[in-house]
Amino acid sequence: MTAASKLLALTSNIERIIRGKPQEIKYVITALIARGHILLEDNPGAGKTVLAKTLAQSISEAATDFHAPSGGVSFKRVQFTPDLLPMDLIGSYIFDESKKDFVFKRGPLFTHVLLADEINRASPKVQSALLECMAENQISSGDTTFELDPFFFTIATQNPIEMEGTYPLPAAQLDRFFMKISMGYVTEEVEFDIYTNYLEIGDSKHTVKQVLAYQDIINLQKEAEKVHIHQELVRGIVRLVQSTRHHPEIALGCSTRGGITFIKCLKAWALVNQRDFVIEDDIKALAQPVLHHRLIFRNREAAQTVLGKLTDAEVNRLAKMGINNKA
Amino acid sequence: MERKEKFEQLVVRWILVVLPTLLIGVYTIRALNFSYTALTTSLISQSLWFSLGLFVAYTLYYYRARWIVTLVLLWVAYALGERIISRLPGEFDVFYTTARFQLYSTLFLFGWGFGLLLAKIRWSYILIFGVLVVATLVIAADTIDLSIEYLLVNLFPVLIYGLYMYFLSPLLRDRIEISWKQSGRLVLRLAGFLLVILLAFVITDRLLRGTVKAVEKELAARGAKGDKEGKGGEGQDKKDDYDDRYGLMDHDDDGFRLKDTMKVNTRMSQSDRLMFCAKLDNYFDNGDPQPLYFVYHYLTRYDPVKESFTRDVNVPSSDEFEVDPAELPMYYSYMDTSIIRKAKGPRLRKIVNAQVYLSADAWKHAVLGPANVFSIQTIPVEKDFQKQFLSAYRTQSYVSELNNAYFVYNVSASPMLEGFQEQRHEELREVIDYRGVDPAFYEYYTRQPTGGIYDSISKLAHSLAPKHVKPIDKVLAVRDFFLRRNENGKRIFRYTLKPGRMDDPNIPSSKMLYDFLFKTHAGYCTYYAGASLFMLRALGIPARFTTGFATVNRSDKNKGWYWFYASQAHAWTQVYFPEYGWLDFDMTIGNEDQQSAPKPDGTPPLPPPDPWLVLDAKAESLDLPAKRITVSFQSLLYLEKPYLLKNPLTRPIDVSMCRVLLNKKDTTLAVLQPGDSIIVVSYKDEAREIPVLRKGAPIDPQVAAFPSPIIADEIHIRRPEEKKKEPEKEGNSLLDEEKKKKITFEEIAWMVAKGLAGIAVLLLLAPLLYLVYRIIRQALARGTSRADEVYRSALYRLHMAGLERESETPLEYARRMVDPQLQAGFESFMLTYLRLKYSGQPMRPEDREIVDRLANTLGSSIRRKTGIAGGILNYFNLLRALRYFQQPISSPEPETHAL
């Protein structure tokens, strides 16, 4: 199976469960292929959990000692609450009678796909513990450091309407998420489809097929790194990133790490879109999910329009550029 | 830190606000200096005081000084200053110092006020702008030859300032960002602004020039007519009715003049314009004013072919005074000694002085005066009368005691006049015949055509007077012929302006004269003068046809002053009597039906003061702010006597209290340029201490004793008026240049119009031309650049076909817009193109195929949608083409997939 057909299989598999959201599914897969994490900001019941679960179930397990409930890569879901402790996530040492020793009892972080539900309701301590894992791909408990599987993929969600008793993620931690997207509601037609489907075959949990193996994802991640990105596009990205730093309506521009993340995501996105090269459309498609949450705007209107304008200007500039780099 | 920033902001405001205000203030002060010579101090110190006030006030109020406190302090300072100055010793010094103090403090206060307003009120510039405009208008109102152009040019800096401040005012509200980028943008915007204004100015000037000129002309005409026109509408109609063909006068740019050639006509056209007013120093013994006709020309010859009376060059012993007063330098006089020599009739002769003020309508080259003028001196017109009268001169004439304006005219008005007439005839009976007269002279003035109607006229004349009676009785017989009454006691001859039958305008002039004498008995002055001329000459009495103005003594208010309107233009005969010379005999019957009320006499102009010194000089160098000029001169009038120096002299002139005239119109010093030829006039009271020159003494030592600088009271700038001169005249390089400039001006206007039209056409065709360019590029390109060219031309053609790409990428555009509408396979092309562009992979044969396919099919796909005509028409949509070259505007709605 080629990379393209693998990805096609994966997306179509998830699309069978999550209806009417091909773009969002692609974003999530892109974050996975780019070895990043994704933050879904959405109302409850929009399908975040199902998306995460389906993604995990679509990938079969192999060469891993993690226990997966349904044969795929392991999937854990943690509901974040204000009284959650880092211990609850990471795990803790408990006394083993048989060995007469403390053994480490692994917490839910030791998994492949983690759904961190309502991440903004947890205390900053817990948030930073999670984010350390996401950034370093390792867990420190006491004096021991546990390496996480390179696959480790977090889908965090946060609820935008409930502001009371929440701890909004600081900018530095938002930065750790490769993308921040919003699922949104589906169209009337799709929703009707979903209900009919439910009435016919009941809960879709069990019908998810495993289409890819763990190793396939690792291969795809390696494949994504090989995607070609043209010099001019890189220049375009530099210009775009720079322009966010000088724009009067933007208080805090995009960091260099943000730019690198952007390139990583672009490559993965190109692969997800069956291409082995990045095009200008990719920049336009990814600018919002990848860059928007990294910027701090001076006011609400600016937050809604400025990045779009900057991206359009840059993309148009690239579109007007000829093949031989003549403007 | 904040202090520092505040100071920085102040410095920026000094540059942006205070400096321009200062400049415009100084500009206005400078203009004021040229117009108001009373500001005797130098421009620099005036500007300094103004600037100081402005600067200090702005700075103080910027730091939020209490304005009440500061104003009280200012007042105290002013009061103290005044007190100190009034205690200074010396009368003269006190006057000057006080004047200076007042001037400076006023300027300082103005500056202070400007500063206060600028610092305190955001919209204060409107007020300042208003003050400046008013000041400029006041200055402009002082110039008599005010043109709209002049006004615009003078208002231009103020307008620019207003616009500048208008542009700047929103910036002043908050902190001004101090950065090169900001200031660069500012300068750019200002430059653009200026350009637009300049363009608007030029265009307005070009477009409205005609209208403006017409309005100016109208205003000038109205001004000349004065405001005293009773029934405005009627008067205007009459004036506009004036027809050169039928009147006694014709006109050109220099005004109305009496015709050089006259003949009787079917009707006479008249006009109510004021021609001139004059003071005539001629009185009866009892002090009553004795009016005299003002002669313009003698039409000595009768041309039987043209049937008209005309001027002649070959007049034996001509006594006509010929000089152009417009060419005569101010205060200079011209005396024709040949006239003094040739003047006929030494008996009972006296010299009569007259002052003539020519209105703007009168021909400015005309010498008008009672016969015979032999000397003329130009004089300036007093400032308040400049609107009415353009130029003035004094004349001296030889006048016979026997002459006066009451011969037929008003003959029975008073017993005194009748007595005078009787006395005069008695005196003239001394002349028995013309035996002693020069035969050539006698023959010339009695020559007349023979045959036809002329013979019947002489027959009539001979039937009136027996051969042997004295000349005066023959003349009186002719007069009595016109004064005859019929059996009912009614006059046979009438005065009418429309003697001819209007339905037959081609009737010969001589026939009309014949009809007048024998049939209709109705005519105007030319008929009477012509008929009497023929009759007198037939009787062997030398006579000549004279044109000029009838003098009417309407009021006793200003004795000796007479006002002459165009309707007073007149023709009459002069009769020669040996020893007594030429005497006026006006045979014209008074117009008994004349209803029109006598026109009002105006206020006579004030006589100019007598100058002690008049220099015919050339301006060498000017120091206008200091109000000093240096002139060189060789010819001068000293106590009204002309002198010519051996060597030209150079002298400084103080012009601080001076009236400046350019071509006899009041203006300001600003127009004076080095090299101008000027007449410098200094009035008598300035030269109290200068000893009077002894008769015959050389002038040069006297000139050395003149005060230095010479204080000028008037400066007359003389510049040739272009339109008068013939351009062919050689050596007139300046005029040639002037002419060239004029031509190029129109040419430029044409060129600009053509250029604009060209640009418009080009603009209209630009989208199509760009298409051609793209197609040529596409046809020439090979390989990957062919893909490029196809891509570009496709985007352009699709855009112009009405499929406008907005904020989408070309691929999205292909997917969502182009292919659903055109089925052109644009998406597959875009995918190929993007791969070629970004993948770094080489071009494959199938790529080439896709590119070629689009290149070949796009045109037909577009045509399917728009049609052929529509497709071409689309390229004239300039706005659409403009949008193509602009950056796309992103959609204002937020993206749906990410928030």
Compose a concise summary of this entry.
The complex is a heterodimer of chains A (327) and B (899). Chain A has helices at 3-17, 22-33, 48-58, 86-90, 124-136, 171-174, 188-201, 214-225, 231-246, 256-272, 280-291, 300-320; strands at 38-41, 59-60, 75-79, 91-96, 101-106, 113-117, 138-141, 144-147, 153-158, 179-181, 212-213, 250-252, 296-297.
Question: What does this protein structure show overall?
Answer:
The complex is a heterodimer of chains A (327) and B (899). Chain A has helices at residues 3-17, 22-33, 48-58, 86-90, 124-136, 171-174, 188-201, 214-225, 231-246, 256-272, 280-291, 300-320, and strands at 38-41, 59-60, 75-79, 91-96, 101-106, 113-117, 138-141, 144-147, 153-158, 179-181, 212-213, 250-252, 296-297. By secondary structure, chain A is α/β, with parallel strands linked by helices. Chain A folds into two domains: 3-220, P-loop containing nucleotide triphosphate hydrolases (Rossmann fold), CATH 3.40.50.300; 226-320, Helicase, Ruva Protein, domain 3 (Orthogonal Bundle), CATH 1.10.8.80. In chain A, strands 3-6-9-1-10 form a five-stranded parallel β-sheet. In chain A, strands 2-11 form a two-stranded parallel sheet. Chain B is of the alpha+beta class and 899 residues long. Chain B has four domains: 2-178, no CATH class; 261-585, no CATH class; 611-688 and 703-721, Copper binding periplasmic protein CusF (OB fold (Dihydrolipoamide Acetyltransferase, E2P), Beta Barrel); 750-885, no CATH class. Chain B contains 23 helices and 25 strands. Chain B has an eight-stranded mixed β-sheet with strand order 22-21-25-23-18-19-20-24, with no helix packed on it. Chain B has a six-stranded antiparallel β-sheet with strand order 8-10-11-9-4-15. In chain B, strand 21 (659-662) and strand 22 form a beta hairpin. In chain B, helix 3 (67-86) runs antiparallel to helix 4, helix 4 (91-120) packs across helix 5 and helix 13 (471-483) packs antiparallel against helix 15 (525-538). The longest helix of chain B is centred in the last third of the chain and has 48 residues, at 733-780. Chain B is flat. The model of chain B is unreliable at 225-240, 723-743 and 889-899 (pLDDT under 50). Chain A binds chain B through residues 23-24, 27, 41, 180-182, 184, 228-230, 232-233, 275-281, 284, 288-289, 292, 304-305, 308-309, 311-313, 315-316, 319, 322-324, 326, and chain B through 784-785, 787-788, 791-792, 807, 809-812, 833-841, 887-888, 890-892, 894-899.
